[in-house]
Specification:
single chain; alpha/beta; 2-enoyl-CoA Hydratase, Chain A, domain 1; 2 domains; 6-stranded mixed β-sheet; 12 helices
Length: about 260
Amino acid sequence: MARVSVEYKDHIAHVTLTRGDKMNALDEAMIKALLTAGQEVAASDARAVVLLGEGKSFCAGLDMASFAKMAHMDPTEWLMTRSHEDANEMQELALIWRRIPVPVICAIQGAAYGGGLQIALGADIRIAHPEAKLAVMEMKWGIIPDMGGMVLLPKLVRSDVLRLLTYTARPIGAAQAAEWGLVTRLSDDPQTEALALAENIASQSPSAIRAAKRLIDFAETNPRADVLLAESSEQVDLIGKPDQMEVVMAQMQGRKPEFK
């Protein structure tokens, strides 16, 4: 059965985990489907992405059958192989949303545990229901977060918070997650809020939005001088070009811009 659906409407890609009866837990089919969906969206002309989970939870992490399967596999081969640029297949589940060239907004309801949380962390922005629960759950199973979590988490939370979450595996409420930086903001209807935000982003200059995401990603990991140069280079590619000129004309004429 299908594990992920991808739909496009008004320049927005809707990527939905469709295993709601199992809290969208990750099995091999879900892993493959998520990677395929991410690759498809990355190659599309979407201007924003909304990442959703159907049912009561966003994603409860790896399912029990997958844990049992892991016990009979040699982890060296499937974990140490760099199959997706600098990442292995499991790490790419989270990092692919950062590689997508347009903003990704994740709506979180119910549980976002373990691998499910790491997938959500790959999004640019996370909107959570006030009753949602989030957890770096891996220690419960005697393992560590290894789906890109240690690339993403240190940029979002303080070191002591990261250590607390990792060492204890305790779920925290959405309000605490927002205070600590795991969640961008809370909403009683996170899916509607995520879509409204995506619509706002999709109405901006497509080339400027893509440039902004590239620049932010670059700025997070590179020295000051390189970031300053990257700012200038990206701006050179925007000023006076069709998208930017359309924004200016629309502002002057009091209308919404229309991009080709």
